[in-house]
Specification:
Shape: globular
Structural class: mainly alpha
Oligomer: single chain
Number of domains: 2
Number of helices: 14
Strand content: under 5%
Order of helices and strands: HHHHHHHHHHHHHH
Radius of gyration: 31 Å
């Protein structure tokens, strides 16, 4: 017979509530903290390894877009490696040909830059000689307020002794604009090298397309539904990226055709180059429209001293570009993939903060791929509803 003295007393109501409270507080809190730490580590890795990840991301986007061409060439009996090489060569010829077509217009625009900059310099000197600057006015106002405060307090104003002026010969340092121009050539070389590296990786991805898909399916697990899930994610990701690129190309061409007569009527020289610039820059949604309007307003201000004319030109260009891009893009996306525009904008800004200019270009395709993953994973359905329309 057991000793009743050592019999364990039943837990009271307060003890049970305390235990349940501790267990309810401990596990979710630790899990949320680990999730936050993991996200911070992923963000740090994405920012630290951007020189490696940017060509990889560009290559995956290029491969998703060029994959139908490679499949078409394979279907007519061409070897997979040769088909991938021809596809990448076609993309390189299109990019190089587009750059060559605008070379003369770009050279003519560059020749006008010294005259425009000299005009801006002369205008600044004239305005400075005609009227005191804002800094001078603020300095004089602060001096008058100090003298008034010293008079009201009864203290005699302090006589300021003018120290003898010593001429110091300052060393010539390059300005911010000169520094940016000097680093511009390096940036162009980096961009060209990254694009060429991305095209090389694209060739490898397209050449190993069927084998790479089989390896990804094997890596997803031995269960059939896991492999089916991976296959569905790959197929939908390629399809959605292709649809996004088609929508972007149609929208950008429409923006270029819409602003071409606008720049012509506003009196811009090389209005075709301006239309091409608007179409290319609008690859970055929202930011591209503002960049085109700001550039048009700045050039107008350089050519004429009227600030209101420059503002009006920028406003007209911004309205036309935003109206055409918003209406057409919204209509096309409503018929293809339903994406939340706010989520796309925030995603583009986030990837732009991580990877700079390349992040602005690659942000939207990455958000599209993330939405496909969230749509197919049950644990991420909440994020899918946030990214969806």
């Amino acid at each position: 017979m057991k000793n009743p003295i050592f019999k364990r007393a039943p837990p009271t109501k307060n003890t049970t509530a305390a235990v349940e409270g501790d267990s309810a507080f401990g596990a979710p809190a630790i899990r949320n903290a680990l999730i936050i730490i993991a996200l911070a580590c992923i963000i740090f890795f994405l920012r630290y390894a951007r020189d490696f990840l940017i060509p990889m991301a560009m290559a995956m986007v290029f491969a998703a877009v060029l994959d139908p061409i490679t499949r078409k060439l394979r279907s007519i009996g061409i070897n997979t490696s040769i088909a991938a090489g021809l596809t990448v060569l076609f993309a390189l010829v299109v990019i190089s040909g587009s750059i060559y077509l605008v070379t003369d217009d770009v050279a003519a625009a560059v020749e006008k830059l010294p005259a425009l900059s000299q005009g801006l310099k002369d205008r600044a000197k004239t305005e400075q000689a005609a009227a005191p600057s804002t800094v001078t006015k603020l300095t004089e106002t602060a001096k008058n307020l100090e003298e008034a405060a010293s008079t009201l307090s009864g203290a005699p104003p302090t006589a300021t002794k003018t120290a003898p002026r010593v001429e110091v010969r300052a060393e010539s340092r390059p300005s911010w604009i000169r520094a940016q121009l000097s680093t511009g050539s390096t940036t162009v070389l980096q961009v060209v090298s990254q694009v060429l590296l991305a095209l090389l990786i694209t060739h490898f991805i397209l050449a190993a397309g069927p084998m790479l898909r089989r390896k990804l399916l094997r890596a997803s697990g031995n269960r059939p539904h896991h492999r089916a899930l991976m296959q569905r994610i790959l197929a939908q990701s390629c399809k959605q990226v292709q649809l996004y690129v088609v929508i972007m190309m149609v929208t950008n061409v429409a923006v270029g055709l819409a602003v071409w007569p606008v720049f012509y009527l506003l009196g811009f020289e090389q209005h075709g180059l301006w239309a091409l610039f608007a179409a290319v820059v609008h690859i970055v949604p929202y930011v591209g429209s503002v960049a085109v309007a700001a550039a048009a307003a700045f050039v107008t201000y350089l050519e004429s001293p009227a600030i209101f004319e420059a503002v009006n030109v920028g406003a007209i260009v911004l309205v036309v570009v935003s109206l055409v891009a918003t209406l057409l893009s919204t209509w096309l996306q409503s018929r293809t993939s339903r994406m939340n525009q706010v989520a796309v904008f925030v995603g583009i800004m986030f990837w732009g903060w991580l990877w700079g200019l390349w992040g602005l270009f690659l942000g939207a395709p990455i958000v599209v791929i993330l939405k496909v993953i969230c749509d197919n994973v049950n644990a991420l359905r909440g994020a899918a509803r946030l990214l969806g329309d």
